[in-house]
Amino acid sequence: MKNKTLQSSFHRPYIKFLSAIFTAITIPIFLGVFKYFSAGEGRIDEFFSNFGYEFTITLIINLTFLFIIIFPLSILIDGLIIMKVKNKKTFIFPSYVISYVLIGIISGSIYSYFISSFNPISSILYGLELTFLFVIYQFTFNWLINKIKIILSKNAQS
Fold it and tell me: Which of 34, 41, 58, 139 is least buried, going by the fewest C-beta atoms within 10 A?
């Protein structure tokens, strides 16, 4: 029973898809709000670009980054963790943290290579940021769906 619950709660590609979309939308919104509030009187000579342009460009970059690199790697990692925990009663949180840190480092390195960056540390930090926001949304959506299923099963029983 526990193995079935574990498999059903962590291997849901539609939740990963929703998490990727919400992650890709959240980052440009935070960047736009941060730029708006950090623009003080001393930044008058800075080049002006509107929020819609920055939102669109950042959204395109984040969606490609998430759907080409992080999304497939996370499906692979979830499958490997489910296979590892299938017959054992182990605590899987450290496995998830370590595996998603590795996904962030790998995806940041790949991103750094493709943009020909001479400073891969910033790209790796960007990959880690996207990966952990992706994981936060994924666990939030898993929690919500599990709560909804519990409520629906209680209503069906009564």
Answer: 41
